[in-house]
Amino acid sequence: QVQLVESGGGLVQAGGSLRLSCAASGDTFRNYGMSWFRQAPGKEREFVAAVRSTMTTHYADFAKGRFTISRDNAKNTVYLEMNSLKYEDTAVYYCAAGRPILSAIRDPNLYYYWGQGTQVTVSS
User: Fold this and answer.
1) CA–CA separation, 97 vs 116, rounded Å?
2) C-alpha angle 117/49/53, rounded to 5°?
3) Do residues 7 and 20 make contact, with C-beta atoms less than 8 angstroms apart?
4) pLDDT at residue 1, as a whole number
5) Which residues pair with 27 in a beta bridge?
6) Longest dimension (CA), the chain
7) For residue 43, which phi and psi values (nearest 5 degrees)?
8) CA spacing 20 to 30 A to 99: which of 7, 51, 71, 105?
9) How many C-beta neighbours within 10 Å does residue 33 have?
């Protein structure tokens, strides 16, 4: 079992930055791939970024160049640094833990554990 708790969301103006954190407890954190997903009202949950247990990272096209995912295994925490935020980045952001194969890291159904989400609101 892994428990995930996100923090760091909030209200920010377009062009601003936020840093999300996801603290994990329970099972061995380093064994899991960690990802961030987001869900806007009326839309499906979508993949944002992943950092695998090997420390390799992967991003959705909209996140490339603006968002950075990282993990600190000593602190059992994964981060999402978001810069140049846009109105369309407004969503609830979730962290997730799992072991999907590389070709399936964007599929939310393959993640075992989820946090409760943190709201990110970008004002235009």
Assistant:
1) 13
2) 100
3) yes
4) 86
5) none
6) 40
7) -120, 160
8) 7
9) 23
What's the DSSP call for residue 43? S
Q: What secondary structure, in 3-state letters, does 34-80 show?
A: EEEEEECCCCCCEEEEEECCCCCEEECCCCCCCEEEEEECCCCEEEE
- pLDDT tens, the chain, 124 aa long: 899 999 999 999 999 999 999 999 987 888 999 999 999 999 999 999 999 999 999 999 999 999 999 999 999 999 999 999 999 999 999 999 999 998 999 999 999 999 999 999 999 8
3-state secondary structure of 54: coil
Q: How far apart are CA 20 and CA 95, in angstroms?
A: 9
Give residue 28's pLDDT.
85
- Spatial CA neighbour of 51 closest among 12, 80, 85, 13: 80
Contact predicate 49/59, CB 8 Å: yes
Outline where the chain has alpha helix (H): none
The answer to whether residues 33 and 4 touch, using CB atoms and an 8 Å cutoff, is no
Tokens of 109: 């159904």
Whole-angstrom distance between the N-terminal and C-terminal Cα of the chain?
A: 40
DSSP assignment letter at 108: G
